[in-house]
Amino acid sequence: MAKFILALDEGTTGSTAMVVAQDLTFLAKAANEIRQIYPKPGWVEHDPEDIWNATAMSARQAMEKAGVQPADCAAIAITNQRETSVIWDRDTGKARFNAIVWQCRRTTAFCEKAKEEGLEQYFRNRTGLVLDPYFSGTKVRWMLDNVPGLRADAEAGKCAFGTIDTWLIHKLTGGVSHVTDPSNACRTLLFNIDRLQFDDALLGVLKIPRSLVPEVRPSAGSFGVTKGLDFLPDGIPITGVCGDQQSALFGQTCFDEGQSKCTYGTGAFLLMNTGDKMVPSTHGLLTSVGWKVGDRTTYVLEGSSFIAGAAVQWLRDSLGFIKSAPEVEELAASVPDSAGVVFVPALAGLGAPYWDPEARGGLFGLTRGATRAHIARAVLEGIALQIAELLDAMAKDLGKPLTELRVDGGASANNLMMQFQADILDVPVMRPRNIETTALGAAMLAGIGIGMWDMNRLREMAAIDHRFGPQFVQSERDAYLNRYKSAVRCTCGHGC
After folding, report:
1. Any residues with CB less than 8 A from the CB of 322 and at least 6 apart, and which?
2. How many C-beta atoms lie closer than 10 Å to residue 215's C-beta?
3. Tens of pLDDT along 291-314?
4. How many C-beta atoms lie closer than 10 Å to residue 25's C-beta?
């Protein structure tokens, strides 16, 4: 049997494993859901053991479906929800508290107080990020301050912190490796993106012991080998690790400066490759590390929207408009437009460019004539409109307009929304043949890590499935954007 790469894609709602062949085709895929825990409004947690168990089960199932032998696994790749934070005991390997998920807003008050103390620019200058509950640092601080005995044990060097990649590497290697890559480290509020190392000053401000943080290694490199697993033999190398959004950019083969992609998952994430230079944002975007391959570090600009596919889940689970997520396209397409209904997807606050954790979702323009179909269409349009605002901010930071957008993620299969996205952006939207680019990017990095491919070969293997060309005239585009911006002002409490 030919060697394969096992790609582990750790999302917010589930763990997916994919068996990737040397020609980059997916031989099999398996997924298992992760239980969502909501202790209080705005708080979101996962049980770290649930994440690990779902990962292990998905890996077993994927290899069984593919009919491959675990011993033929050439390497393991990991891509993951980035800011979600876990602290565990070094001796027992057990988590000391539930993982606090990237969506969780429990540290809003802490962030606001830090801003009042003038710390926001201090963090932005070093990390490229804004002071927001989204990122890991304040989640770690909360756990240290609120979990009994945790701070004392952490200061004694008895505990380890990691994002989900680090947690899984810990489990895969039998507790041997405590490592991460720059794409994940840079989302913690603790990592200096210029020096490419955890920053003692930032750790000091947040009162986090240095002994908690992992070692940082290149995204295509050596993160350890498997040990003590019942579904893989010992000694299989982990050679590709990358945060999910950067991994999707890599999987889209956006290797050149100026290339961009948007991933439509639970949230929506727009990233642009800025090459080997950091581009500071003056329009609410984030500057992050994309990946490190060899000695070369690639940087990105990023705009994040907390709610995308989650809005469709809301239509399904909370409102009962549809029975399954794919049904939303047919429902929305049953009407020619939204009849003036506007949806602002601020169900978990607003990310870039507003960074307003207190904003709330809103439906505007409702009349007696508004139907489920109009609301469904408005939800899809609202997802696309927030991406348009991100792209506008990105173009302003770069000083030039974007020429195309590559898309991926589950919701990119929605042709109606992708056409509207092209219409509202006024640029072509390109969807690849394989929309599972998050897992693909990690697999590519793992393959580079073992010498299976190089970046030139990967570029040659990329394939576009569909091109959505813009069809709106400018007046249509402006009308949609103006209505949406007015609605956003209302959700932010600035008056309609």
Report:
1. 312, 315, 316, 328, 331, 376
2. 13
3. 999 999 999 999 888 899 999 999
4. 11
Query: Distance (Å, rounded) from C-alpha 3 to C-alpha 61?
Result: 18
Strand, helix or coil at 160? strand
Q: Are 129 and 286 in contact (CB under 8 A)?
A: yes
Nearest Cα neighbor of 186 from 258, 249, 241, 135 is 135
Residue with tokens 């290694």: 217
Q: What is the CATH T-level fold of the domain 4-244, as seen in this structure?
A: Nucleotidyltransferase; domain 5 (3.30.420)
What are the pLDDT digits (tens) for 73-98?
999 999 999 999 999 999 999 999 99
CA–CA dist 484, 385 (Å, integer): 7
Helix (H), strand (E), coil (C) string for 342-370: EEECCECEECCCCCECCCCCEEECCCCCC
Parse the chain into domains and list their residue ranges: 4-244
Q: Which residues of the chain have pLDDT under 70?
A: 1, 493-496
User: Given the structure tokens 């469904």, which residue do they identify?
Assistant: 376
Rounded distance between C-alpha atoms, residue 388 and residue 422, angstroms: 9
Is there a contact between 232 and 226 (Cβ–Cβ < 8 Å)?
yes
CB 29 within 8 A of CB 63: no
Judge whether 76 and 35 are in contact, CB under 8 Å: no
Give the distance from CA 201 to its chain's centroid. 27
Entry field: residues in the chain = 496
Strand spans (E) along 164-200: 179-180, 191-192, 197-198
Query: Tokens for 116?
Result: 């009042």
Residue at token pair 């990390």: 127
The packing angle between helices 136-146 and 108-116, to 10°, is 110
Beta pairing partners, 159 = 89
CB atoms within 10 A of CB 334: 13
Structure tokens at 493: 């409490």
Q: How far apart are CA 224 and CA 157, in angstroms?
A: 21
HSE on the CB side for 244, CA within 13 Å?
27
For residue 249, what are its two tokens? 């950019």
Rounded CA gap, 450 and 75, in Å?
A: 7
Predicted confidence at residue 180, as pLDDT, reads 98
Report yes or no: 390 and 267 within 8 Å, Cβ to Cβ. no
259: tokens are: 């290339």
Contact 164, 95 (CB under 8 A): no
